[in-house]
Amino acid sequence: MLPVAELHLHIEGTLEPELIFALAERNGISLPYADLDELRARYEFTDLQSFLDLYYANMAVLQTEQDFADMTRAYLARAALAGVRHAEIMLDPQAHLSRGVPLVTCVNGVASVLATSEGDYGISTLLIAAFLRDQSEESALAVLEELLAMQAPIAGIGLDSAEVGNPPAKFERLFARAGDAGLRRIAHAGEEGPPSYIIEALDVLGVERIDHGIRCMEDPELVERLVEELTPLTVCPLSNVRLRAVDDMAGHPLPAMLAVGLNVSVNSDDPAYFGGYVDDNFAQLASVLGLSEFDCVRLAANSIRSSFASEERKTELL
Ligand code: ADE
Ligand code: ZN
């Protein structure tokens, strides 16, 4: 199994249907689905928002530290089978705070498992607090201050949720504050939003990595810049197909992105919702797009080099 780093993963997007039902039962929560089949029947998405609606609704079952810890352990166990040896995991604190779940509950639940992930699963990990771009910058700033005050073990911040209409520049102060606090910075851009959002994320927010970024291919000048600057793009093929950012796997731009020299990696985004983990993404790329072993090795090396792992860990994995 090729060792890879997973750089684009929402921990809440790893909540599998079986675990949703198990946690609902444990917490005495009644779900609006009679059984697993009825829940699975909802996993037909028309765009990003149609997915986000279900993704946020299903978070209702996450109530205690143990719930967050169980979800995290389940992801790490599955990711280890996929060859993941380093993972940078996003958590959406605002999505839990708005449901009345305290910050300490979600952060500690995930972080307590990540603290021993290398020994337990062979996966070095770090945690990234992602902010919801369809909420206000004030809300994000307040949560960031709280995270800093509690010395939450976060390595960086990200920006996710509904992209179109919520350009990166809306969060200029948030990212400046995070930079001042010594945090790494990444943002979703160019998933559904235009190439200009990628430029804004780089120039206004100062991000080091772009999550998705597939729409850069519409702007040759931007592509040239991204190639020159070796900007990492964390691409998620199955996600793009399921959220209809692309028509089908056969039409996915990843081979073209590789061909022009972009620094792309393969990631699973929300694997419980999009039909598979990192290994499933690689398998689809190989079977549908004929990605060669050489391409796969290059993609895996890109993921490790583009990670925020220590130089020592990167050397170990390369
Ligand atoms: N939150 C979880 N998955 C996401 C995605 N693919 N895009 C934006 N926000 C998300
Ligand atoms: Zn994402």
From TrEMBL:
<dbReference type="GO" id="GO:0005829">
    <property type="term" value="C:cytosol"/>
</dbReference>
<dbReference type="InterPro" id="IPR032466">
    <property type="entry name" value="Metal_Hydrolase"/>
</dbReference>
<feature type="site" description="Important for catalytic activity">
    <location>
        <position position="212"/>
    </location>
</feature>
<comment type="similarity">
    <text>Belongs to the metallo-dependent hydrolases superfamily. Adenosine and AMP deaminases family. Adenine deaminase type 2 subfamily.</text>
</comment>
<keyword id="KW-0378">Hydrolase</keyword>
<dbReference type="InterPro" id="IPR001365">
    <property type="entry name" value="A_deaminase_dom"/>
</dbReference>
<keyword id="KW-0479">Metal-binding</keyword>
<feature type="binding site">
    <location>
        <position position="269"/>
    </location>
    <ligand>
        <name>Zn(2+)</name>
    </ligand>
</feature>
<dbReference type="GO" id="GO:0009168">
    <property type="term" value="P:purine ribonucleoside monophosphate biosynthetic process"/>
</dbReference>
<dbReference type="GO" id="GO:0043103">
    <property type="term" value="P:hypoxanthine salvage"/>
</dbReference>
<feature type="binding site">
    <location>
        <position position="188"/>
    </location>
    <ligand>
        <name>Zn(2+)</name>
    </ligand>
</feature>
<keyword id="KW-0546">Nucleotide metabolism</keyword>
<feature type="binding site">
    <location>
        <position position="8"/>
    </location>
    <ligand>
        <name>Zn(2+)</name>
    </ligand>
</feature>
<dbReference type="InterPro" id="IPR006330">
    <property type="entry name" value="Ado/ade_deaminase"/>
</dbReference>
<feature type="active site" description="Proton donor">
    <location>
        <position position="191"/>
    </location>
</feature>
<dbReference type="GO" id="GO:0000034">
    <property type="term" value="F:adenine deaminase activity"/>
</dbReference>
<protein>
    <recommendedName>
        <fullName>Adenine deaminase</fullName>
        <ecNumber>3.5.4.2</ecNumber>
    </recommendedName>
</protein>
<dbReference type="InterPro" id="IPR006650">
    <property type="entry name" value="A/AMP_deam_AS"/>
</dbReference>
<feature type="domain" description="Adenosine deaminase">
    <location>
        <begin position="3"/>
        <end position="318"/>
    </location>
</feature>
<dbReference type="InterPro" id="IPR028892">
    <property type="entry name" value="ADE"/>
</dbReference>
<feature type="binding site">
    <location>
        <position position="270"/>
    </location>
    <ligand>
        <name>substrate</name>
    </ligand>
</feature>
<dbReference type="GO" id="GO:0008270">
    <property type="term" value="F:zinc ion binding"/>
</dbReference>
<dbReference type="Pfam" id="PF00962">
    <property type="entry name" value="A_deaminase"/>
</dbReference>
<comment type="function">
    <text>Catalyzes the hydrolytic deamination of adenine to hypoxanthine. Plays an important role in the purine salvage pathway and in nitrogen catabolism.</text>
</comment>
<dbReference type="GO" id="GO:0009117">
    <property type="term" value="P:nucleotide metabolic process"/>
</dbReference>
<keyword id="KW-0963">Cytoplasm</keyword>
<feature type="binding site">
    <location>
        <position position="10"/>
    </location>
    <ligand>
        <name>Zn(2+)</name>
    </ligand>
</feature>
<dbReference type="GO" id="GO:0006146">
    <property type="term" value="P:adenine catabolic process"/>
</dbReference>
<keyword id="KW-0862">Zinc</keyword>
